[in-house]
User: Fold this.
Amino acid sequence: MSRNSLGNLHKLIAVTRADTQVNEKSALPLEVMFLNSLEQTITLENTKPNRSSTYYKPSSMNCLRNMYYGVKGALKGDILEPMKTNVIGICESGTDRHKRIQYYITKMKKLGFSWEYLDVAKYIKDNNLSNLEVKEYYHKDDEENYHKDDEDNFETLLVDKELNMILSMDGLLKYNGTEIIGFEYKTESDSTWINRVDINEDHKNQAFAYASRLGIDRIIFVYENRNNCFKKSYMLNITKENKDYIINRVNDCEKYVKTNTLPPKTDNKKTCYFCKYKDICDKDINVGE
Assistant:
């Protein structure tokens, strides 16, 4: 952690503790003081240096500039602006739901269904996918700390040595003992889910990347309503053009990286909304100039 990052974190803790002490001396009801302290604790526990790896990530493929910042290590080690506690909770609930759904999928074959949840490492070995390096299981908050953090973590982190990309698909399925199909699980708000009629366009690049590197042609998306856990499912059939797009996308970004030239911004404002590089991007700040 850099001295600046550590200093910023200590300042945040000091300010938060001071605010808490002021609140405790105020005439606020005890339950309100408790909730304030809980919210501040959630924020502090999730306020850590940016440890994102400098690999390309399928989730960043919608924006060349995001790809560029990520692979060049922009803001690495810095304390990023803390997320709001409700956003932290949404992310945590999504992670928890992934684990539960993945657990149930592992039980399907034993219960007589035609679906089997595959061991990704074994699949890679059996199919001689030498471009992929298995980093075993990992903790989602730290892409550089590869370990199996608990018995319910069913995801496997892969590094694609050819494209300098990390991959962590929600699962690989075998149907009827023959066909291999990818699996992606998404949780979303009630209003978004109600209007869901197809796969989110912003999710398709992830599927193209997984299919390209793992040699599969179909991926099932399941979308779950966070309010009531109702689900919808869609199949994405992936073409050679889709797979080639990912390779070309990385190659395009590499040209900017090698010339240290800032790529153009995306015109998709939804992509920008939660982007950790938004502040430096708005100012057109380059990395390593």
